[in-house]
Amino acid sequence: MSGTENQMTGAEIVLQALKDNGVEHIFGYPGGAVLPIYDEIFQQDDIEHILVRHEQGAGHMAEGYARSTGKVGVMLVTSGPGATNAVTPLQDALMDSIPLVCLTGQVPTTLIGSDAFQECDTVGITRPCTKHNWLVKDVNDLARIIHEAFRIAQSGRPGPVVVDIPKDVQFATGTYTPPSAAPIQKSYQPKTSGDARAIEAAISLMKGARRPVIYSGGGVVNSGPEASRLLRELVEITGFPITSTLMGLGAYPASGKNWLGMLGMHGSYEANMAMHDCDVMVCIGARFDDRITGRLNAFSPNSKKIHIDIDPSSINKNVRVDVPILGDVGAVLEDMVRQWRAGSKTYDKAIQADWWTSIAKWRARNSFAYKASDDVIMPQYAIQRLYELTKDRDTYITTEVGQHQMWAAQFYGFEQPNRWMTSGGLGTMGYGFPAAIGVQVAHRDSLVIDIAGDASIQMCIQEMSCAVQYNLPVKIFILNNQYMGMVRQWQQLLHGNRLSNSYTEAMPDFVKLAEAYGGVGIACDKPGDLDAAIQEMIDVKRPVIFDCRVANLANCFPMIPSGKAHNEMLLPDEATDEAVANAIDAKGRQLV
Amino acid sequence: MNAHLQPTGSAYFIAAETQVAESHTLSVLVDNEPGVLARVIGLFSGRGYNIESLTVSETEHEAHLSRITIVTRGTPGVLEQIKSQLERIVPVHRVVDLTVRAKAMGQERPIEREVALVKVGGSGEMRAETLRLADAFHAKVVDATVDHFILEITGKSSKVDQFVAVMKPLGLIEVCRTGIAAMNRGSQGM
């Protein structure tokens, strides 16, 4: 190409760079400092722009889009308040390792630092909540920086990045550099293949294990579908039991015979007991988060630990491990499976026989049990019915944050990766609905359901307007108990049942609310009516708010109470009022 | 590591460190670009690490590389975490714990030097004493009038500390220190 062909305005460069990075959808909200880019969006058809109602919604939509497709999610917001409203989803994506490119407008370079209208220090504000960020001061750097933004967002441990583009740079004319010709920052070269000697050491530990367990996480999903396939193969050839974090659900199928269920604070008894009593733990793409480990000094005290992770800072951060393997989960699992098969001595799964006997005993404890009712809908029952009626469809599930999220994780069986979108690290109420819209944009014909709580859903409810505008038939399934259930549960545990501000006195009429936005509202409060109502929700090809009135005071069990170990779970049949009140000692009350 | 932590009675555990904190000197090679120092400092404040000394300057002009020298304090586990966290920063090329490297070579510490400018006022006998001590410390006079000296001193931090201390009774007015520049002994680079 000649020099003049590559000459474009900054705004044109933005669109060209997005196209060259394979972008088909962006989520955004216009404003003064991004008008030139919006003008370019208007004049092209390759990229569809989804107009949100609040920038937080744009971020979570981009996250849901990214998590369900494996692609990078893209958001576009204006300067000042547009950028500050993006902070929550950026931090959310950082903690859950979601690849996100956020383009922000900025006041013209000549006004930066003058406290101009809608000015804020975007790169300063977003520095700790992004993997990296840039302020573009020269239009000739713009293309390179956007290409670099995509490379950094999706390689290594994925994460969010921000490109801050002043308005004069959007108007200025400069040279467009295509991705293939753009120089990369040499200091960032993540390592993907695992060290052969470390893998060797891991396999030798695994082959000698009498009580092994695989503990997998969101890293397996991030690594791509091949990593999930290899994980399944590893479980198959080793015969090891497997549990997963909240973020990793679906990488190994819930119907698999080695599946123990989710682990952690509200995980299954068998998963947590297996973690506590194991002699070899294989942690794959997880990070020993505090909701997983319980009390650290009692965490799996007698095991040798193997940890596969692409991020060196995850190794030995919370828990010291014996065999760290740095690399991409998919690449490491491939080597691991190959070496396991190539090993000289044949492996006899009988070595695990006693272990599986113990696991069978723990499973028989039936830790997710709840008291069924014919009069009121138990929240667990609602999730079970939702699962039964949607499992044979092409379904994606997102959640908000709280009790409903834990019940969804416990009772909805995920068979495939990328089907489950939830805010794990940051715990962002308001995540689920916009995330579901993002998923639906990527999968127009699929069934996308946001399992929500009555409090969480009100944090981003304005996006109903967005769902209706783009004919996105997202279903919001609200487990409505009129409480911030998880807050109330902790107040019962820690604060003498003083339910300070956790009850919602003025609940909106969700059916009318749906109708006001142009969607469909369905309400149900009888267990006997539930199946038909869920079926109606599925059949409607429009956005639906389903107000599922559930038992008001149900709590989420089992639970590892504050300050307790994996083998000190509070089980549902033991969770009397007295046991709940005394579950946490005085010292534990001082902290969360 | 987990075996050393004490129960705290919470799902948020506060690690009661039984390991002893040590002072280490890190060399960090970074691209000299806007915001890189803010990223490094933000990491330390955001994650609650200590900074005892910080020195930054461009060291390779053509390659746009700067070298940041940080003296920090922490247990071996925390120091390892600091190094890993620094390496995650995109414009960071390399992080070397000079203290660990020095110990591997059988030395107590890497070579660490600081420059200080020390302004001392006074008249009469005091001035003679100031000059005599400056000479003993190999400090140079870089500015003087009839009622002050500015002295330049180079050395280990402990030597600078000591020099400042002896100048105090002689009419110390102000001190400016550069922070520590450090490298390992031997022919090998970082």
From TrEMBL, chain A:
Its cofactor is thiamine diphosphate; Mg(2+). It comes from Shinella sumterensis. It comes from the Bacteria. Residues 199-335 form the Thiamine pyrophosphate enzyme central domain. GO terms for cellular component: acetolactate synthase complex. Pfam families: TPP_enzyme_C, TPP_enzyme_M, TPP_enzyme_N. This is Acetolactate synthase. GO terms for molecular function: acetolactate synthase activity; flavin adenine dinucleotide binding; magnesium ion binding; thiamine pyrophosphate binding. Belongs to the TPP enzyme family. Residues 8-124 form the Thiamine pyrophosphate enzyme N-terminal TPP-binding domain. Keywords: Amino-acid biosynthesis, Branched-chain amino acid biosynthesis, Magnesium, Metal-binding, Thiamine pyrophosphate, Transferase. GO terms for biological process: isoleucine biosynthetic process; L-valine biosynthetic process. Residues 401-548 form the Thiamine pyrophosphate enzyme TPP-binding domain. Binds 1 thiamine pyrophosphate per subunit. Binds 1 Mg(2+) ion per subunit. Its EC number is 2.2.1.6. Pathway: Amino-acid biosynthesis; L-valine biosynthesis; L-valine from pyruvate: step 1/4; Amino-acid biosynthesis; L-isoleucine biosynthesis; L-isoleucine from 2-oxobutanoate: step 1/4. It catalyses: 2 pyruvate + H(+) = (2S)-2-acetolactate + CO2. InterPro entries: Acetolactate_synth_lsu, AHAS_TPP, DHS-like_NAD/FAD-binding_dom, THDP-binding, Thiamin_PyroP_enz_cen_dom, Thiamin_PyroP_enz_TPP-bd_dom, TPP_enz, TPP_enzyme_TPP-bd. It is an enzyme of class 2 (transferase).
TrEMBL record, chain B:
InterPro entries: Acetalactate_synth_ssu (IPR004789), Acetolactate_synth/TF_NikR_C (IPR027271), Acetolactate_synth_ssu_C (IPR019455), ACT-like_dom_sf (IPR045865), ACT_dom (IPR002912), AHAS_ACT (IPR039557), AHAS_small-like_ACT (IPR054480). Catalyzes the conversion of 2 pyruvate molecules into acetolactate in the first common step of the biosynthetic pathway of the branched-amino acids such as leucine, isoleucine, and valine. It comes from Shinella sumterensis. Dimer of large and small chains. CDD domains: ACT_AHAS (cd04878). Pathway: Amino-acid biosynthesis; L-isoleucine biosynthesis; L-isoleucine from 2-oxobutanoate: step 1/4; Amino-acid biosynthesis; L-valine biosynthesis; L-valine from pyruvate: step 1/4. One of its GO terms (biological process) is isoleucine biosynthetic process. Keywords: Amino-acid biosynthesis, Branched-chain amino acid biosynthesis, Transferase. GO terms for molecular function: acetolactate synthase activity; acetolactate synthase regulator activity. This is Acetolactate synthase small subunit. One of its GO terms (cellular component) is cytosol. Its EC number is 2.2.1.6. It catalyses: 2 pyruvate + H(+) = (2S)-2-acetolactate + CO2. Belongs to the acetolactate synthase small subunit family. PROSITE patterns: ACT.
